[in-house]
Design a protein that fits this description.
The structure holds 2 protein chains of 2 kinds.
Chain A: H1 16-19, H2 22-38, H3 42-59, H4 63-68, H5 74-87, E1 93-97, E2 100-103, H6 104-129, H7 134-145, H8 155-185, H9 195-226, H10 245-266
Antiparallel strand pairs in A: 1-2
Helix pairs in contact in A: 2-6, 2-10, 3-6, 3-10, 5-6, 7-8, 8-9
Chain B: E1 11-18, E2 32-39, E3 44-48, H1 55-62, E4 70-75, E5 78-79, H2 85-92, E6 95-98, H3 111-121, H4 126-139, H5 155-167, E7 173-177, H6 185-202, E8 205-209, H7 213-216, E9 221-226, E10 229-234, H8 236-240, H9 243-248, H10 255-265, H11 277-293
Parallel strand pairs in B: 3-8, 3-9, 6-7, 7-8
Antiparallel strand pairs in B: 1-2, 1-4, 4-5, 9-10
Helix pairs in contact in B: 3-4, 3-5, 4-5, 5-6
The complex binds adenosine-5'-triphosphate and magnesium ion (MG).
Chain lengths: ~270, ~300
């Protein structure tokens, strides 16, 4: 039952966005996030949305997939919207009933916040998780952060940890399934009783899971040592990441988006909010 | 001095002793005591012993994962004692190891990335790694799974990937530490076939630690361990002739030998050991005809 959980939902494909260098996509996502947080004008927001639509078209990810990624955050979305709606004070009072007061500014802020979150979630999916395999992502992060190695930040070790974690997620999920079955066979129940009872029922799962995980970690360390692993030093890679002209274009578009958004914030045509 | 007539062993152990460090050193029993052995390049060696007899510990000593407290290990006649970190690293790539649990030795989320892990650690240039990975995939017959995720594979396939990961480092010797113990019979055959083929075709030395006598019979030499010591060694025929000794240490000879041994106790008088099922059947049939003729 736990097997149905898809983690870091990557959709293999051959689109331009899939083929782009993972570092490009990390940079692009960062630019996009920065742009979204700088935006203060309706036109700027529209520009962000348009950019996303363009990249979505380039990614060839089905729209339904992208929208299903929004489902888990609908609650947060509604919550933020309502909080902003009722709590923002402004000048033009539109509606008032008992203690509830809704201002024009409230509506605008609430809408902007909701759209911002929506674009953020769908955007990070399209730019990163749907189109980049997790291993490529850790590689990209290692390479982008490699200047930090000079000041003794263990960048390689972190990316190795990430890779191993990703490798063992499916294995540990299978193991959890097996342990749960074993405990059920001994009469344990995980779906009845109150919250505390259910939480308590998890203990007989977690303890064997941890014991097994430590055993695995031990074995893996020996196996890695056997394969001459001794940290990032002197290590080469089979696949070397390379930027193509398209990658430079994509990153340029990210920077341009930030510039345009900031410009629109200060220009009268931007419809400041 | 090695003489001209005797070739230099690839791996030679001289009186190796190892005790696992413990909180209470007073009651320590050594996991490996005074073990000596010689493994020549291109040999296929089987190592037997019941649970806890020190086989894995010995394997880790041979591949320099553990450092012996006393005794010496020689690779190509050169002592590993007092070697620096870098020299040990260079030696370690000669001896690869495949472990029991296929899940606990694969590092990456994609098969070919995992095979590349070893050569990457050795600092080999990218193009060369690519070539080695493809070659290793072909050698274990898993080319079409290059881009698959390891957790989608069967146990036997995972073990073959583990073998490929070792092969890509171009070792001269591969130690299989009960590599078939968690597999079903077909997975076991898959892995054993791969190992024997590598031994035959590429002259890679194989040290196979196993509980399956049928596997041990295929080896050139068999070693038997008991409570940390080496108690028997020789060709399969020599070793399995010592049925009583094997039984004392809770081991069995191959099924054919066991059967004839039992029949001998009923007055069978079969020559032992017999390691081949067909030969065993012939012997019994012959005996049956003889007894019928004699009334
Ligand atoms: N990491 C360890 N720490 C302490 N003692 C250990 C450790 N590993 C093994 N031992 C002990 O060393 C002895 C030999 O163990 P070893 O694993 O070498 O046996 P084995 O022949 O490989 O057994 P098996 O057939 O079960 O794999 C055992 O008594 C075991 O309890
Ligand atoms: Mg063992």
């Amino acid at each position: 039952m736990l097997k149905d959980v898809t983690l870091g939902q990557y959709f293999p494909g051959e689109s331009p966005l899939h083929r782009a260098d993972p570092r490009t996509k990390v940079v692009l996502s960062l630019c996009y996030i920065i742009a979204l947080f700088c935006v203060k004008s309706a036109l700027g927001m529209l520009l962000c949305a348009l950019t996303l639509v363009c990249f979505h078209a380039a990614s060839r990810i089905p729209l339904r997939t992208v929208l299903s990624g929004v489902k888990p955050i609908l609650f947060i979305l509604a919550f933020t919207f309502l909080i902003n709606l009722f709590w923002t004070r402004g000048e033009t009072l539109l509606f008032s009933w008992k203690f509830i007061r809704i201002y024009r500014e409230g509506i605008v802020t609430a809408l902007m916040m909701a759209v911002r979150i929506l674009l953020l979630v769908t955007g990070s999916g399209i730019f990163l998780t749907y189109t980049t395999s997790p291993i490529m992502l850790t590689d990209a992060i290692e390479q982008l952060l490699s200047p930090l190695k000079k000041i003794k930040v263990p960048v390689h070790d972190f990316s190795m940890m990430m890779t191993i974690a990703l490798r063992f997620i499916p294995t540990l999920i299978e193991e959890t399934d097996r342990i749960m079955d074993a405990q059920k066979a001994r009469g344990a129940s995980f779906s009845t009783g109150g919250l505390i009872r259910r939480a308590k029922a998890l203990i007989p799962i977690l303890i064997p899971l941890f014991v097994c995980a430590f055993k695995r970690a031990d074995d893996l360390a020996v196996a890695m040592e056997c394969r001459c692993y001794r940290g990032g030093e002197g290590r080469t890679r089979m696949t070397r990441l390379r930027f193509s002209p398209a990658d430079y274009l994509m990153m340029l578009s990210g920077v341009l988006l930030i510039a345009a958004v900031i410009l629109l914030n200060h220009l009268p045509v931007g419809i400041a909010l | 001095m090695p003489s001209f007539t005797e070739p230099v062993p690839l791996i030679e152990a001289r009186d190796l002793c190892y005790t696992y460090p413990d909180d209470d050193p007073s009651d320590d029993v050594p996991a490996v005591k005074n073990v000596s052995l010689k493994v020549y390049a291109g040999e296929h060696v089987a190592l037997l012993g019941h649970n806890g007899s020190g086989k894995s510990t010995l394997a880790k000593l041979l591949s320099q994962i553990l450092v012996p407290q006393s005794g010496d290990l020689l690779i190509d006649g050169k002592s590993c004692r007092d070697l620096g970190e870098n020299e040990l690293f260079d030696l370690r790539k000669n001896i690869g190891m495949v472990f029991q649990n296929p899940d606990n030795q694969l590092v990456a989320t994609v098969v070919e990335e995992d095979i590349a892990f070893g050569p990457e650690n050795l600092g080999i240039p990218s193009e060369e790694i690519r070539r080695r990975v493809d070659e290793a995939l072909d050698a274990v017959g898993m080319r079409e799974y290059a881009r698959t995720s390891p957790h989608m594979l069967s146990g036997g396939q995972k073990q073959r990937i583990a073998v490929a990961g070792i092969l890509a480092m171009m070792p001269r010797c591969i130690v299989f530490d009960e590599a078939t113990a968690m597999l079903d019979p077909s997975g076991r055959d898959e892995v054993m076939e791969t190992a024997c083929r590598l031994n035959r075709e590429r002259g890679i030395t194989i040290i196979n630690i196993t509980h399956h006598m049928a596997e041990a019979v295929r080896a050139d030499r068999v070693y038997v361990m008991h409570e940390g010591s080496m108690i028997l060694s020789g060709t399969p025929r020599e070793v399995f002739a010592h049925i009583a000794t094997l039984r004392d240490v809770a081991l069995e000879a191959p099924a054919e030998t066991e059967l004839l041994y039992s029949l001998n106790r009923l007055g069978g008088a079969f020559p032992l050991p017999v390691l081949d099922a067909d030969l065993c059947a012939d012997l019994i049939a012959q005996k049956y005809r003889e007894t019928r003729k004699n009334g």
